[in-house]
């Protein structure tokens, strides 16, 4: 039991102890001689691969990790070299980066901003990683990008499709190879108009969070520009697994196209529900009812099974592409793991190579030097045709694939077929486009 | 001194020494060695240890003393984080106003939720708090996006107004959090032979606040108020029959523990200025329950220990991948190496949940009093050898909440 007896001496004594305690940390102030955060001084350089290993995007994360390991092998001169042989820049020698052997650490983002940042921080503070890459959702990518800016390391974004990553949340230390929602809309809309006609009424079901909204906005504005009418935009909670109650009103709305702004498990469920309701056999306004899934991935197509047949969408890259680079990548990935890579695997492999090449060309690992080498960099031979890393927002501009679910798949991986390759020029936008406005890159931060 | 008895003072001193020497204690292996993988002495994780320690200490005031199991405490942590980040955006990058505001806001929020939820007890109370927390999470995730920035999480930008202080530093980057100029991220590195120790300003701020929080919790445990809370846990009906209204007491305990959660949230944002909605999800609320039970509910030190264990698994075990395993077992012949890697593989890397789950089951089955009980049993074994078996816990008869001082 406590008794509160305040004596003059007791108060003084407590005060002195507390005071000494508060004063103690000021003894330790920052002092560091390195030119930038985690300057590699030994014979190796450490990269941090931060992907979801548990949670809803664990499949994508696992595939990304495979591609990272492959990229590291190729950089260190093991394996068949993959896309290093087709890459237009020939700086990489297969002896690591700048002569330093590439090592890596991995972490689990759990598709949560907090966990992702904790994992990235431990890579930076404990393992001395000089670059962080990964992410399978835009929220996580944006959170980690902000952290890397603060800590003074380069962030090479993985799978992130939201406009914000290189829009209002862009950062000088962050770079994105993957395409974005605007590009999906710009690539998809002409194909939709050509297929389904210019006089259509669209109904949007949208996952209720940042990515869903930017995607809905992008697709709606792209299709409306071609004469389509947007009947209704309905937000669905992210945790929803049964979309029946959202599908039923679609039938009575007078719409003849359903656009599913869903990703991952959400999309698998909503598409399955829509097909089970017989939407695709319906005729509305004298036209066949159509379903569109703006962002496709092979892993999602696999989840949705036969329901994806004939459904249009867009993707960053697909393994059935027949250019030399894609073939080389599919071959070395297939040899090592026994199945073709997903678009997530492709984009992170490219990001690793692009980072290594930029270091090589800059002659340093300093984030500012690397950033400069990447800004405005034009390259080819990584599977997407000629590509530009735009300096204004650190976004890659390249061709976008419009795909559809294959009618007669020949294997469990052969689920999508490329309908059209939309040229980069058609998906390019101004850096101050209203959908991307509001952010600033800031200046590059080398940390230390 | 400090109004606590000798035993408690010793405990406080032990905790203080552990907290202050953590950079040494948590880095037992030389940097660069294979075992360095298990080192936890880097700023971010050390900060998390003490911040979640504060969270668990606060939760324990409610759960350990009154027995009310709240499944929504993460909401207060999240609210605290959001308040702190808004303070950074609008007022200044000094952490003090941010932390103060986060405690106040979390206190008010818990008053509101507690007032409603505490009309019921037992499982109904748990469900109510869970519902409120999930509601907060969903609001933060989508509806309240203008305030919370939704899925992306609330971050600082270069356009923040920041009344006291500048929107951007001279070289065009976002200013960093500080305490009157002392940057939270500044770290002093000390190399001793092969060892590398990191002393981080932010960590020490957290550690001092944790000690203060620990001390305050200790006073609450020992106070008449704490005794009343324990009475509620033991037999609330009987308490009511004696003519006492227990509601004000439970509500006070609820608000106090909500403020602790807010403090933890504010500190998290101060160390790393970001507030995400996931911080409020039910899994986060469940985590603090696990921490408290794993360490030992109703004990002083238990929740802190539990918090440390869970964060250690989350951050250290999840980073052990196959290539690290191959590195460890490389000295063995190939076949054995691969076999061992295959056996260990499911328990590390993405399997860290599994290991933690097994540990949790083992603790609940064999040590119902948590890790603290394990410590007590070991201590008792040594005592018996010395021949003094008398129970010095007579003060707390007629027992039987686990003793609070260990």
UniProtKB/TrEMBL annotation, chain A:
It comes from the Bacteria. Residues 44-406 form the Leucine-binding protein domain. GO terms for biological process: amino acid transport. The keyword Transport applies. Residues 1-35 form the signal peptide. Gene3D superfamilies: 3.40.50.2300. Belongs to the leucine-binding protein family. This is Receptor family ligand binding region. It comes from Actibacterium lipolyticum.
From TrEMBL, chain B:
Its main location: membrane. Signal peptide: none annotated. It is a multi-pass membrane protein. This is Leucine/isoleucine/valine transporter permease subunit. Residues 383-406 are annotated as: Disordered. InterPro entries: ABC_transp_permease, LivM-like. It comes from Actibacterium lipolyticum. It is found in: Cell membrane. Keywords: Cell membrane, Membrane, Transmembrane, Transmembrane helix. The chain crosses the membrane at residues 45-63, 94-116, 123-144, 201-221, 248-268, 288-313, 325-348, 354-375. GO terms for cellular component: plasma membrane. The keyword Phosphoprotein does not apply.
């Amino acid at each position: 039991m406590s008794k509160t007896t305040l004596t003059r001496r007791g108060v003084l004594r407590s005060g002195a102890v507390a005071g000494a305690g508060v004063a103690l940390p000021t003894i330790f102030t920052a002092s560091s001689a390195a030119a930038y955060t985690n300057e590699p001084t030994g014979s190796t350089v450490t990269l941090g691969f931060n992907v979801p290993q548990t949670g809803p995007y664990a499949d994508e994360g696992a595939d990304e990790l495979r591609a990272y390991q492959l990229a590291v092998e190729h950089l260190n001169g093991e394996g068949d070299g993959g896309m290093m042989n087709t890459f237009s820049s020939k700086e990489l020698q297969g002896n690591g980066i700048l002569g330093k052997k590439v090592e890596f650490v991995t972490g689990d983002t759990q598709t949560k901003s907090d966990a992702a940042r904790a994992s990235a921080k431990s890579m930076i503070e404990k393992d001395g990683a000089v670059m962080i890459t990964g992410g399978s959702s835009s929220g996580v990518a944006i959170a980690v990008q902000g952290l890397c800016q603060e800590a003074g390391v380069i962030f090479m974004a993985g799978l992130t499709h939201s406009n914000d990553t290189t829009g209002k949340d862009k950062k000088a230390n962050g770079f994105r190879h993957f395409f974005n929602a605007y590009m999906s809309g710009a690539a998809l809309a002409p194909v939709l108009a050509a297929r389904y006609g210019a006089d259509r009424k669209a109904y949007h079901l949208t996952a209720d969070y940042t990515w869903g909204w930017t995607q809905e906005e992008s697709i709606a504005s792209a299709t409306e520009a071609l004469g389509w009418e947007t009947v209704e935009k309905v937000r669905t909670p992210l945790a929803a697994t049964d979309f029946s109650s959202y599908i039923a009103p679609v039938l009575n709305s007078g719409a003849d196209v359903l656009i599913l702004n869903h990703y991952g498990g959400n999309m698998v469920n909503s598409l399955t529900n829509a097909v089970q309701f017989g939407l695709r056999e319906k005729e509305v306004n004298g036209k066949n009812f159509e379903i569109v899934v703006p962002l496709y991935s092979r892993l999602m197509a696999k989840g949705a099974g036969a329901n994806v047949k004939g459904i249009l969408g867009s993707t960053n890259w697909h393994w059935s592409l027949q250019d030399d680079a894609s073939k080389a990548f599919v071959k070395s990935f297939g040899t090592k793991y026994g199945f073709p890579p997903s678009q997530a695997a492709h984009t992170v492999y490219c990001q690793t190579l692009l980072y290594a090449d930029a270091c090589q060309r800059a002659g340093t690992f300093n984030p500012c030097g690397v950033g400069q080498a990447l800004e405005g960099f034009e390259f080819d031979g990584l599977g997407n045709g000629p590509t530009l890393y735009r300096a204004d927002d650190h976004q890659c501009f390249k061709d976008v694939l419009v795909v559809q679910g294959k009618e007669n798949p020949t294997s469990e991986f052969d689920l999508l077929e490329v309908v059209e390759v939309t040229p980069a020029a058609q998906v390019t936008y101004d850096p101050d486009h209203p959908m991307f406005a509001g952010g600033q890159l800031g200046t590059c931060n080398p940390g230390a | 001194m400090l109004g606590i008895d000798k035993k408690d003072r010793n405990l406080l001193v032990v905790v203080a020494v552990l907290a202050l020497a953590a950079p040494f204690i948590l880095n037992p292996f030389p940097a660069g060695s294979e075992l360095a993988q298990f080192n936890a002495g880097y700023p971010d994780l050390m900060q998390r240890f003490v911040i979640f320690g504060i969270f668990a200490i606060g939760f324990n005031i409610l759960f350990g003393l009154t027995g009310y199991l709240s499944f929504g405490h993460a909401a207060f942590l999240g609210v605290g984080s959001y308040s702190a980040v808004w303070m950074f955006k609008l007022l200044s990058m000094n952490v003090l106003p941010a932390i103060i505001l986060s405690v106040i806001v979390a206190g008010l929020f818990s008053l509101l939720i507690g007032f409603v939820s505490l009309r019921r007890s037992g499982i109904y109370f748990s469900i109510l708090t869970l519902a409120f927390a999930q509601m907060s999470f969903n609001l933060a995730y989508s509806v309240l996006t203008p305030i919370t920035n939704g899925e992306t999480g609330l971050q600082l930008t270069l356009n923040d107004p920041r009344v006291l202080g500048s929107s951007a530093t001279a070289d065009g980057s976002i200013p960093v959090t500080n305490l009157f100029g002392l940057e939270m991220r500044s770290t002093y590195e000390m190399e001793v032979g092969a060892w590398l120790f990191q002393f981080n300003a932010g960590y020490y701020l957290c550690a001092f606040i944790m000690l203060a929080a620990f001390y305050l919790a200790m006073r609450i445990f020992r106070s008449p108020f704490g005794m009343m809370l324990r009475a509620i846990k033991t037999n609330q009906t009987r308490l009511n029959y004696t003519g006492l209204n227990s509601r004000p007491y439970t509500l006070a305990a609820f608000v106090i523990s909500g403020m602790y959660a807010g403090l933890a949230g504010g500190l998290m944002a101060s160390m790393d200025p970001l507030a995400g909605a996931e911080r409020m999800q039910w899994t986060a609320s469940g985590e603090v329950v696990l921490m408290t039970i794993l360490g030992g509910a109703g004990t002083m030190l238990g929740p802190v220990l539990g918090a440390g264990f869970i964060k250690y698994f989350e951050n250290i075990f999840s980073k052990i991948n196959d290539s690290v395993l191959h590195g460890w077992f490389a000295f063995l012949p190939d076949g054995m190496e691969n076999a061992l890697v295959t056996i260990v593989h499911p328990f590390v890397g993405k399997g860290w949940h599994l290991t933690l789950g097994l540990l949790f089951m083992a603790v609940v089955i064999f040590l119902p009093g948590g890790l603290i009980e394990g410590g007590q049993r070991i201590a008792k074994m040594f005592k018996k050898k010395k021949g003094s078996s008398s129970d010095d816990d007579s003060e707390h008869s007629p027992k039987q909440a686990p003793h609070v001082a260990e």
